[in-house]
Amino acid sequence: DVQSDLPRRSLKFAFRQCKWFTRGWTLQELIAPKTVVFFAQDWERIGTKASLQGLITETTGIPLGVLLHNDSSKMSIAKRMSWAARRETTRIEDRVYSLMGIFGVFMSPIYSEGTHAFIRLQEEILKTSNDQTIFAWKEKWPHSDPRGLLATSPDDFEASGEYEHVDRPENRRPHPMTNMGLLVHLPLLR
Predict the structure, then answer these.
(1) Which segments carry the region annotation Disordered (predicted)?
(2) Which of 21, 95, 100, 23 has its CA nearest to residue 61?
């Protein structure tokens, strides 16, 4: 949805506003391949992921190292979730399923579970990671209903992009899901 005949400054603005950066599935399409080429509406080449890296980082919040080397697994869970905030898909579940590759997990799709899909994704992530930033989210819209420890949407991580996972021995305990809920050992700071 970008026109190629725009002046350079306007082209940058239009590129930032492009719908492509708000779609759920395009997040993995941006990160996974080594080369991504961007075209305008008239198929005029705008640039590549490498040539537009600064603009893409400003637009998405995705660090250059991730864009150029696909090393997203080194980023905290909260940071990766923040990249998915404000992205949309036609179906609620697709927004979640589009994140599986970014977190290295697999879930069988269930196209009737709605927002529960995001809870299920976090449960799968917890099976393979001890990164406690998964709990560093803030509810985007105030709820009157009681909430659990896990977020209900990637949007809840919108402001969590700066959280880093600190790998300390005391943080290496697993977070298993039990018949009574999630078992978590958290450090107490004074």
Answers:
(1) 154-178
(2) 21
